[in-house]
Amino acid sequence: MSQSPQPETETVSWVKIASADALKAPRPVAPVTAFGLKLVLFRDEEGELGLIGRYCPHRGADLCYGRHENNGIRCPFHGWHFDRTGQCTEQPAEPEDSTMYKAIKLPSFSVVEHEGDILAWAGDGTPPPLAG
Hints:
Layout: E1 15-19, E2 29-34, E3 37-43, E4 49-53, E5 67-69, E6 72-74, E7 81-83, E8 88-90, E9 110-114, E10 117-121
Antiparallel strand pairs: 1-10, 2-3, 3-4, 5-6, 6-7, 7-8, 9-10
């Protein structure tokens, strides 16, 4: 369940990771393997796409089974919440004044919908413009 926060190979172009149809279900969440990593792809309530590490760093729970809510995914085990950038935004069992969640971030990748496909970028820097 552990995964490297860096992709195995550097990407020099956008890579198709799914069809846009994969997120048309009432619960727009899908498991994806890309760049040598197991990831979770989702569309949040604002219609934005997220592609983040698939396993919660706390206990390794599969976030594909998490609750899709509050513009992110909530871990099914202890309720940690991650937004589309992979940033942990809540840790329900922590004391109210705890800020530990700010130091927790899953790997995340730029992702766009283009001509019915969902494309991801794992290269350094700003992704190139899409062709066409």
